[in-house]
Amino acid sequence: MNKKRGSSLAFFLPLNMYSILRSLLFLFDAEKVHYFTTSSLNKVLKLPFAKKIFTYLFIVEDKKLERKLFGLTFKNPVGLAAGFDKNATMFNDLAYCGFGFIEIGTLTPKGQAGNDKPRLFRLKADSAILNRMGFNNDGVEIAIEQLKTRKHKDLIIGGNIGKNKVTPNEDANNDYLIAFEKLFPFVDYFVVNVSSPNTPNLRALQDKAPLMNLLSELKNANSKKANPKPILLKIAPDLTNEQLDDVIEIITTTKTDGVIATNTTIDREKLKTPKTEVEKLGAGGISGKPLSKRSTEVIRYLHEKSNAAFPIIGVGGIHTAEDAIEKLKAGASLIQIYTGFIYEGPSLVKKINQQIIKENL
């Protein structure tokens, strides 16, 4: 596809069309709107010529964007982070928004309702989202049935896995291994999520001993496969430099394939939203612009301190093409968006890819 043609068509659309739509959607409950918009996308894409229009508007095809990593070929380096398509019901439709890869989940062995509602909130003054979803998902078996409907063979799918809330930490490894084994035939890479702040005691699994043990067990299970698949670790932005040093040691010792930096933050110190308003919303992790600087710092620290010993997928606060470029220059090999996708719309993916081509990264 000629990327310039896609740009010219977009030029004739109202520049503020998505911002108008966003203003309307932001009047309603965030979680309900999420399911409404994704359902609407599915319906729209069934209309005549809709897929061709989306392809024309949002997809940039250029060999310069291609990335070979983990033994996989990514058609472009812009992915959708886990949490958006928890149950693997949307990835076929979301492919028309221009992503090079989509991460489903977090999936647990058994389905679970997650935390009580409301549990998803917009901090509009900060271009941020506060969530305490709690790994709500239908379970790995249901996701597998959805993954069997995969239509885009060149779209890389990652499987983000976690433990059930009722599973004590001492038994957590079994949950990760169950999810790994069941998902193995249906995803291209795995992400071990021990960094969500919304499942009680989950982040304790980031401590050196339990994390080393968990990754070693997964790596051992992976090594027994005829064709092992990449396993990555997703970490929190709230780790100290000493803890990041432990992460580097653990990744290199266990020969884990890479790191996703970072998950949501529990730090609320620099928010523009009034403190009293945030406190009323309750517990949860924050994503979006407030996370941008810290996630980039973590990427740079891991990249430099490890001497680029492993690939990093950068995520956190990417709302512009410049944000994405900053993370790539800090040491990320690929990037993911989530909150930026919600605030800026699908054109963000195209803008990032076009900027990557322009800067020849």
CATH class: Alpha Beta
- Decide which structural class fits the backbone: alpha/beta
Compute the separation of the termini in Å. 20 Å
Count of distinct strands: 13
Number of helices: 14
The major beta sheet can be summarized as: 8 strands, parallel, barrel
Please state how the strands of the largest beta sheet are arranged side by side.
Answer: 3-4-7-8-9-10-12-13
CATH superfamily placement: Aldolase class I
Average residue pLDDT: 95
Pick out its properties.
single chain; 361 residues; alpha/beta; TIM Barrel; three-stranded antiparallel β-sheet; 13 strands; 40% helix
Overall description:
This protein has 361 residues and is α/β, with parallel strands linked by helices. The protein has a single domain (3-359), classed as Alpha-Beta Barrel (TIM Barrel), CATH 3.20.20.70. The protein has helices spanning 3-11, 17-25, 30-44, 50-58, 91-94, 140-147, 172-183, 208-223, 241-254, 275-281, 292-305, 321-330, 339-344, 347-359; strands at residues 67-69, 72-74, 78-80, 101-107, 120-123, 128-131, 156-161, 189-193, 231-235, 258-261, 285-288, 312-315, 334-337. The strands form three sheets. It has an eight-stranded parallel beta barrel with strand order 3-4-7-8-9-10-12-13, surrounded by five helices. The chain has a three-stranded antiparallel sheet with strand order 5-6-11. A two-stranded antiparallel sheet has the order 1-2. α8 (208-223) links the parallel β8 (189-193) and β9 (231-235). α7 (172-183) packs parallel to α8, α9 crosses α11 (292-305) and α12 packs across α14 (347-359). The model is unreliable at 1-15 (pLDDT under 50).
